[in-house]
Structures are given as structure tokens and as C-alpha cells.
């Protein structure tokens, strides 16, 4: 199996898929508690899908989006209290913060996860802050004979970024949680997204 891009050629150490970034401890514990309370105070709606993933609760700003509905619609503007997080997300992605026009807030209660998917192609860069229980972001890319896989441990209060190949060629998923996790993800639009949504 060809896995050259998963390893640094000089050191032989794994580097992970290109475009994957990660930063731990981007907020303190008081801010984490404040954000969790703020997310829980939102009108979180159960994802309409009937099944084991249905326990995921979401709220969107900028544009509403859920990975396996075909619908994208205008949503309320991103509130001020999310702006410091958006700034950190933009820093990690090395883009301007105004590019992150969409925010998706999710609560995964025990038993809730998110199945294998790539985010919709109208969206470009993705960055996500993890709150509450730690999780594993599972990454996979189809090969001729199976998959390359790269699990990423998401500590609470950490931020991950997905750009380039890990965003466009790799799928991601999160296994059903045992304890509650919240995530705050931000997305930019691709050229295609800008054409479609203006
Ligand atoms: O909760 C997360 O960090 C990932 C969410 C996700 O993959 C999505 O909403 O597209
Ligand atoms: Fe996703």
C-alpha cells in the first residue's frame, strides 16, 4: 500500500494527512464551561435522521447545513460571543476570520456520533473546537485495496483544522460518544459555494 504521504521522508515519522492541523489548549477551562452553557442555551434541534446518529443536536449560524441533508439555507448571523473562537479558528487555518462565514454547533449526547462523510463541496476550510468529553476524529481515504486511516485524538479545548487534501480527499467521522461532547465548527466557502450562495 502506498502511504508515503503519511510519513516524513527524512525522519520516517508519521506526519498525518496533508492539510491537517491541530492545536491544544486554545481556551481555558472557565471559557470552556461558559461556551458549553452558551451552546446548551441555544435552540439545539435534533438532526431529523431516524437512527443511531439521531442523538446529535445542532444549531447553525451564517448558513445552515447538515452533512446528509441536501439543504443549505441562510441562518442567523454568527453571534458576537463566537467571534473570539472564530478568530482562533482562522489563525489555525491561516486565513482571514471573515472568510469563516458558517458556524455549526453540535452536542453529542451519549450514543451520538457522526458517520463517514466529507463536508459539502460549497464549504472550504473547516476548523473545529472540542468541548467536554475527548473524542477521536477518524480519518480515512479510499485506496485501491481498502483505506488509509489516520485517527486524531481531539482533547477538550483543542482546535483541529481541515484544509487541502485532508478536507477534499479524506472522509471523517466520530464514533458514538460515551460522554457528552460539544463541538463548534467554522467553515469558509469555496468558489463554488460563493457562486451558489452569493
Ligand atoms: O464535531 C465535530 O468536530 C465534527 C463535525 C462534522 O464533521 C460536521 O458537522 O461536518
Ligand atoms: Fe464534517
From TrEMBL:
Gene3D superfamilies: Alpha-ketoglutarate-dependent dioxygenase AlkB-like (2.60.120.590). Transmembrane segments: none annotated. It comes from the Bacteria. PROSITE patterns: FE2OG_OXY. Residues 99-190 form the Fe2OG dioxygenase domain. PANTHER family: 2-OXOGLUTARATE AND FE-DEPENDENT OXYGENASE FAMILY PROTEIN, OXYGENASE-RELATED. This is 2OG-Fe(II) oxygenase. It comes from Sphingomonas bisphenolicum.
